[in-house]
Design goal:
- The structure is a single chain.
- The chain is an alpha/beta fold and about 250 residues long.
- The protein has a single domain, classed as Rossmann fold (3-Layer(aba) Sandwich).
- About 45% of the residues lie in helices and about 15% in strands.
- Strands 3-2-1-4-5-6-7 form a seven-stranded parallel sheet, sandwiched between helices.
- α1 packs across α8, α3 runs parallel beside α4 and α4 packs parallel to α6.
- The longest helix is centred in the middle third of the chain and has 29 residues.
- It is globular, with a radius of gyration of 17 Å.
Length: about 250
């Protein structure tokens, strides 16, 4: 056990999660990098963080499974004795007409994107309540606020995260636990790989700042909510989106 703050980041082997893990490690956190399938990427990220002089471990878990999510939180408690920050970042996406979404696809979207947040958070907050402190940072999406055509199941799950955040913030406030949400706009990650250049150009024209977000934009928002300077902020949704949704 150390006196350093500890952070668990789900879905942290790549994309926003990986950049968030790096940012928190740079700020002195002991970080737990959760991954499901991308073991090599998770190991490479851990090694990169360790080489920088910061501290990181990896843990394999499908956070949509309650038992595996509990194992992830128990791992952090065994390593560091506490969970100071939980970043619920893991998620999947799919573009599909509503009439063509299968029951299995709907269930999987909710299982990973929404149930995963419940699974991890419920197993993290017990120690946070005992310690009378903690921060839960949930990654939603602008489509959880505004809805997106051909992403009804994704939008539904991400909207659920926002409701979850607001309700849990009220419940955990007396325990000095802050629960906040980040709803990114269009961010350049591998989730954008399926779009043509023409589609990308059209989307960019709709953004007042005339650019897509980058992973650091979201990691910086996580750093703000993870810091003590945000201790009086809870139940809020911060949307780094370049002005596309105001």
């Amino acid at each position: 056990m150390t006196n350093k703050r500890s952070a668990v980041i789900t879905g942290a082997s790549r994309g926003i999660g990986a950049k968030t893990a790096e940012a928190l490690a740079t700020e002195g956190f002991n970080v737990i990098i959760n991954y499901n399938k991308s073991e090599e990427a998770a190991k490479n990220l851990r090694d990169k963080i360790l080489a920088s002089g910061a501290n990181a471990d990896i843990y394999n878990a499908d956070i949509g499974d309650y038992v595996q999510a509990k194992g992830l939180m128990d791992f952090c408690l065994e390593k560091h004795g506490k969970i100071d920050v939980l970043v619920n970042n893991a998620g999947i996406s799919q573009i599909k007409l509503f009439t063509e979404i299968s029951v299995d696809e709907w269930d999987e979207m909710v299982r990973v994107n929404l149930n995963g947040v419940f699974n991890c958070t419920q197993n993290a907050v017990k120690s946070m309540i005992s310690n009378k402190q903690g921060k839960i940072i949930n990654i939603s999406s602008i489509w959880g606020i505004a809805g997106s055509s051909c992403e009804v199941h994704y939008s539904t799950a991400k909207a659920g995260i926002i409701g979850f955040t607001k309700a849990l913030a009220k419940e955990l406030g007396p325990s000095n636990i802050q629960v906040n949400c980040i709803a990114p706009g269009i961010i350049l990650t591998d989730m954008m790989s399926g779009f043509s250049q023409a589609d990308m150009d059209a989307m960019k024209e709709e953004i007042p700042l005339q650019r897509f977000g980058i992973e650091e934009d979201i990691a910086n928002a996580v750093l703000f909510f993870a810091a003590e300077k945000s201790d009086y902020i809870t139940g809020q949704v911060l949307s780094p989106n370049g002005g596309i949704l105001i």
